[in-house]
Design a protein that fits this description.
The chain is α+β, with helices and mostly antiparallel strands. 54% of the residues lie in helices and 14% in strands. A three-stranded mixed beta sheet has the order 1-2-3. The longest helix has 12 residues, at 54-65.
């Protein structure tokens, strides 16, 4: 295969990493397909493969971190590979940001290994209440 042929194959598939280029056009296509979902059906299949969903993350955080409020969002466009979360737990009391993130990451060790990106925002109940008051939003039910 000439480099021109490979380049035409790349243009048809979309952006991929240089490392994938070494394996040829057919592997690039499969590599690209595994990294992003073009339809909701594909997104559901990828989420089912990893087993990580917003609900599973919420449940784990409530059980392992004693979270009073958890809001997890899939920011990957539906493919289940990037999540951000707001976590409110009394276990964060007297812990700095790094210690809070370590606590959350250790609770989600298996899940984090299966996804691409994880962004937690951790608050104590008092900090969350203050933040909601500043933004003019009421506290969620149950907190």
């Amino acid at each position: 295969m000439t480099s021109a042929t490979l380049y035409r194959g790349l243009k048809a598939v979309g952006p991929v990493s240089y490392r994938a280029i070494r394996f040829g056009k057919d592997n690039i296509r499969s590599f690209h397909a595994s990294m992003s979902a073009e339809t909701d059906t594909q997104a559901a299949k990828v989420a089912n493969l990893t087993g990580v969903t917003t609900t599973s993350l919420q449940t784990t955080l409530i059980e392992k971190v004693g979270a009073q409020h958890v809001d997890v969002n899939d920011i990957s466009g539906g493919c289940g590979q990037s999540f951000q979360a707001i976590i409110v737990s009394p276990q964060f009391e007297k812990k700095n940001s790094l210690a809070r993130h370590r606590l959350v990451n250790s609770a989600l060790k298996t899940e984090i290994a299966a996804i691409h990106a994880w962004t937690p925002k951790c608050f104590t109940p008092e900090e969350w209440q203050r933040k909601q008051a500043e933004e003019g939003v009421g506290m969620p039910q149950g907190v």
